[in-house]
Write a structure and sequence with these properties.
The structure is a homodimer.
Chain A: E1 5-9, H1 14-29, E2 34-38, H2 41-48, H3 59-74, H4 89-101, H5 104-119, H6 128-137, H7 142-149, H8 152-167, E3 175-178, E4 181-184, H9 189-196
Parallel strand pairs in A: 1-2
Antiparallel strand pairs in A: 1-3, 3-4
Chain lengths: 205, 205
């Protein structure tokens, strides 16, 4: 099987949520696997000199409108979260701990459940107890998940994932890299799909 | 006929060029007219607190890549301009003068020719003589165009267009407003088309 799609995201990005809800199907359709990489967009934004979309005048108001309309356009459930954006360290670390100690497939289930909690059910996933509750509903051990997400190696792993993303040119989310080709944004899924099907060549070819 | 599509753009935006090459067909397909509004993105960016895409680390390199790949994906001719971005006051004023003194249809022809000069032929359209040359090739009077683009009323008109755009929430380009609904980016043409066909409702309906 050809190389995986590296999928970089932050749990606080609505466009990353849309991408997360569709990327496994896109990968299956093209005979690929997905490597999920939770990162901290706040760190990325500080490095690049940008900020959350919704923090800018005019652009902020439009963005909330676009999240909602884009969800409807693609038929993805979405409700504007009561608080947004949120810190996502706990959610990201819970996923990383699950991937290492329970398995990649359960970690992806957890990620998708956390995204739905945030963008459908209005859950404040910056709170540890809410993240643990989402994990417990999937059958993960609440005490192990709570201790694990707070452990030094998992904290270090999240820092490393974020630095590795920056080193690979990731400046926003969702961000996909496959066969050395980079795609930023859910609205590049059409180009990503065409690239994987051989219908869109790499730049310079 | 239903209301027009207000189309806001800056001659230095590649995504606005892509939009300009397709928007008349999209409008015809949906029984609409297009009102072309050249604006100065530099002024808009200063107001919003953003900057040209290509001015950010990481995002800048990706953007040049994305311009080229997006053009190929949509089958639009594109060559990376030798200098980019460029000041576009002269090009914008030439279009506004032509719209008022020659006619809207010729002004749209001029706009499309200026975009092609910039993004296909590598012409530095910040230079007055180059803008005049593009106009002359379309049969516009070079002396009248040169004097007209530099006149006080046309300068004032461009300022007013840019302020009007900001007042309507325009924070980037291309930006389309129709029936009170706003769309930012060439990658929202699919949602714009669905909206005009009645397949995508207004937010809150």
């Amino acid at each position: 099987m050809a190389g995986p799609i590296d999928f970089y995201f932050d749990f606080s990005s609505p466009y990353a949520y849309f991408a997360a809800s569709r990327i496994e199907q896109l990968a299956v359709d093209n005979g690929r696997l997905v490597q999920w990489h939770p990162v901290l967009l706040g760190v990325v934004f500080r490095t690049v000199g940008t900020a959350a979309l919704t923090s800018y005048p005019l652009k902020g108001e439009y963005s909330f409108h676009d999240f909602e309309r884009t969800a409807r356009f693609h038929g993805i459930p979405y409700n504007r979260p009561p608080r947004f954006p949120l810190p996502t360290q706990v959610a990201a670390r819970a996923m990383l701990w699950t991937a290492e100690h329970v398995g990649e497939a359960r970690a992806i289930e957890l990620a998708q459940a956390l995204f739905r909690a945030m963008f459908v059910d209005g859950v404040a996933i910056d709170e540890e107890k809410e993240v643990i509750k989402v994990g417990a509903a999937l059958g993960l051990d609440p005490d192990a998940l709570a201790a694990g997400q707070d452990s030094a190696p998992v904290r270090e792993r999240l820092r490393a994932e974020t630095q590795d993303a920056l080193a690979r040119g990731v400046f926003g989310a969702p961000f996909m890299i496959v066969d050395g080709e980079s795609f930023w944004g859910f609205d590049r899924f059409n180009q990503l799909d065409a690239f994987l099907k051989g219908a869109l060549q790499r730049t310079g070819e």
